[in-house]
Amino acid sequence: MMKKKVKQYVQQTQTGGKNRDQVLKEFSRVLDDQIEKIVLFLLQQQGHLASRIENLGEQRAVLMEHSDLSQIFQLRDAYREVGYDLVKLLRFVDMNATGIRKILKKFDKRFGYKFTDYYVSTRANHPYSQIQQIFKQVGVVAVVGALSRNLAYLQDHQGSFSSIYDHPSITFKDPVIEQINHSVQKLTHSTNFLQFLGQHALIVPEDMQSGSDLVDDQSYHFVSLLLNLANTFLYMVNTYIIVPTADDYSVSLGAAATVCGVIIGSMAVAQIFSSVYFSAWSNRSYFRPLVFSSIMLFFGNLLYALAYDLSSLTVLIVGRLLCGLGSARAVNRRYISDCVPLKIRLQASAGFVSASALGMACGPAFAGLLQTKFKIYGLTFNQNTLPGWVMCLSWLVYLFWLWFSFKEPGHISIEKSVNTLSSGSGHLVSGNLEDGLGQPLLIGAKERQDENGEDNDDNDEDPEDSHKPVTSLAAAYRLLTPSVKVQLLIYFMLKFAMEILLSESSVVTTFYFKWTTSTVAIFLAVLGLTVLPVNVIVGSYITNLFQDRQILVAAEIMVLIGIVTSFCFTPHYSVPQYVLSALITFVFAEVLEGVNLSLLSRVMSSRLSRGTYNGGLLSTEAGTLARVAADMTITAAGYLGQSRLLNVTLLPSLVICVASIVATFCTYNSLY
């Protein structure tokens, strides 16, 4: 009906029947009425569910006196039926939340007017907001609490009933409760530490439309997951272990110290291409890409270590390029999203981010420990070559462990997922919430396609393709809304600023403060160690107090402050100024990254949540391009002299940061 209204409004405005103000007023009223209808229906059905729980509670009170195991089982199943109906209700609300977004997007598209900004800003923040009831559930928590408590009472079949309140540290586990929590989290975007880290990694759980996770406990292999996380850790160590000594290595080969930008950035250059083919390769296998990654990294580090004795900068850069071609982070993300059961996927995602952060901290720390020099059979082992030799040995050990311990999972095809969705799964997709409910909550697939078919006149997605993954970068780009583009710009900005800070740290601190390699290594390791504590604070506390978009703007402003305070304004650049500004920039860039990827996972198309050209690949490419641009900026600025290096490299960071803040405010009301 709303689609037809939009078409009518277009015709009326073209013929002069109505002006724009009349259309906006009438369309707002119609949309308000529809949202109110959804909210009242939601409250009505919550009341029905509450009544059923109350009736079951009376039956449970009788069973407390007469412990009949068969009746306990029946009562437990009845409670679960209520839970499954609540899941259906939440999916109904989720469908309508998607409908609200789509009709607002359609109105903006057909009229060329940013009606969404006006509507969301006036409705979402109003004290009597009904749109808040759609996106953020409150009454559902009480129903979930009642279900959890009563199911916990019935868990012990021997009749020894215990309360969940007696053991608050123990989370009650039941399949229906997990499904409800997943649906609630999807609607409310509520976040805890683990979920925050999972979004930080941009590993977004796919919607559980079928009501069951396609990855069962039997097919899940813990050692394979451990190997996947070990690959993530070693790769991050490999990336940052050379940062404290890259400038000294380039000087020893007859190049300028600022050529360290090329040495560090060459790995990122190769990663731009490796991310694509690894993402595509992971559609067919996980074991072979990881083996290939290990081999490339082994030979890359071998060349990096041999470049010193060969006195060849070319061999050094080729070695780093091979390391970049072995970047399997796309496979690491994909393995977690596809091959880890949903109930532990958040923990696995948190492990991915933690392994990355730990590797980022350990890389410079290991470099600080390798301050020695000796020769074996004519091969030089010193602070420049030892990072290559250590990583070469590490990847060789990892390759043997991978070869004998990794278990290739049975890959779940998208066709299987779609078939499962369409065929349904028992009581989850059939029946009404109440016996007396006149209309089904979820319309059938055919009716849904017929309804979507009305929309083809303005070149929207074909209904059959609306849930399929995109098959090219061009198709992925067409799905990028202004909000998604701004979030990718922000991601580019923060990666650019962080890479400038980290890559030039050795050159800058040596020039201004005469720091040794060990001091630089300690400084970088301390920066890396701030990642997890910052994520704990933001994920557990800050996101519960403020909206993500508010945190986003605040973090951008703090990064801007960090960049501005990093400039050398006087002839005497002090250590406190550099360290404090670096901490501000790095810490708030980390805050910004987590919130940015959380918002990105929320505003991007569902078609970008799977397949080769997914949201994770797009963000990886944006971040990798930022690192390449930053490292090339350092090398180019080196031609102006080390005395100007700091200020010249900070100028692009400043400009991009200001641009991202302006772009954020332009799309602020759509980040909801």
In words, what does this structure look like?
Keywords: Membrane, Transmembrane, Transmembrane helix. It is a multi-pass membrane protein. Its main location: membrane. It is found in: Membrane. Residues 1-121 form the SPX domain. The chain is an all-alpha fold. The chain has three domains: 1-157 and 171-201, Glutathione S-transferase Yfyf (Class Pi), Chain A, domain 2 (Up-down Bundle); 219-406, Up-down Bundle (Growth Hormone, Chain: A); 474-671, Growth Hormone, Chain: A. Helix content is 71%, strand content 1%. The chain contains 27 helices and two strands. The protein has a two-stranded antiparallel ribbon with strand order 1-2. A hairpin with a 2-residue loop joins strand 1 and strand 2. Helix 10 (246-252) packs across helix 11 and helix 23 (531-545) packs across helix 25 (575-603). The radius of gyration is 28 Å and the shape is globular. The two termini are 24 Å apart.
CATH architecture level-2 label of the largest domain: Up-down Bundle
Please give the count of helices.
27
The helical percent reads over 70%
The general outline is: globular
Q: Describe the biggest sheet?
A: 2 strands, antiparallel
CATH class of the largest domain: Mainly Alpha
SS elements, strand count: 2
Order of helices and strands: HHHHHHHHHHHHHHHEEHHHHHHHHHHHH
> Numbering strands along the chain, what is their spatial order in the largest sheet?
1-2
Low-confidence stretches: 157-170, 205-214, 412-464
Name the CATH superfamily classification of the largest domain: MFS general substrate transporter like domains
Quaternary structure of the protein: single chain
Termini Cα gap: 24 Å
The name of the CATH topology of the largest domain is Growth Hormone, Chain: A
Count of discrete domains: 3
Assign the structural class, choosing from mainly alpha, mainly beta, alpha/beta, alpha+beta, or little secondary structure.
mainly alpha
The rounded Rg comes to 28 Å
Hey, roughly how much beta strand do the residues contain? under 5%
